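YM 10:42: Formylmethanofuran dehydrogenase, subunit E sequence, as discussed on the call
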Amino acid sequence: MKSLEGYLHDAGQAHGHICAGQVLGVRLAMLGLRKLEIDDPQGKDRKRLVTFVEIDRCATDAVAVVTGCRLGKRALKFRDWGKVAATFLDVSSGKAIRIAAKESSKALARQLHPEVEDKNQQQMLAYREISDDDLFTTQWVRVELPPEEFPGYKGERVVCEQCGEGINFRREVRREGKVLCRGCAGESYYEPL
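YM 10:58: structure's back
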């Protein structure tokens, strides 16, 4: 693994800037990899890891940079829970650990650096210094990953009987004997004009 500063450099380039969320995300991912004993997530260990992130904010970009997990490679999974947390699954051993940022870390940052007025700057500085135990909660967990969720899975493709679009990875809805995509089944996030 790289150093904290090395990953922060890479995260800043990928995200466009360094912020407190980037520092948290880098630290969170580094801790997850250490706990799972994954030393080379973008090299020899790259097929061992699937990561679930729980927020669509800055920390997620940093987690992706450190782990090498990407949505397009099916190794990064997004669960919209609104939490600065991630679960790291070693698919070769089945071991998984969930790590979440402690809410108390913000107050701790204020205590450590009251001389820094800008909250983001204060947190960026403190999050580099605070111990893992004071910054995060960790919990060993079990994650059931069905075959269609694994990176590299080649599954059947079906066609929605209403709109004609293809659907991958068993994401179709079967209703009243018809195969439908989620949009046509009423789960759409968009509305046709």
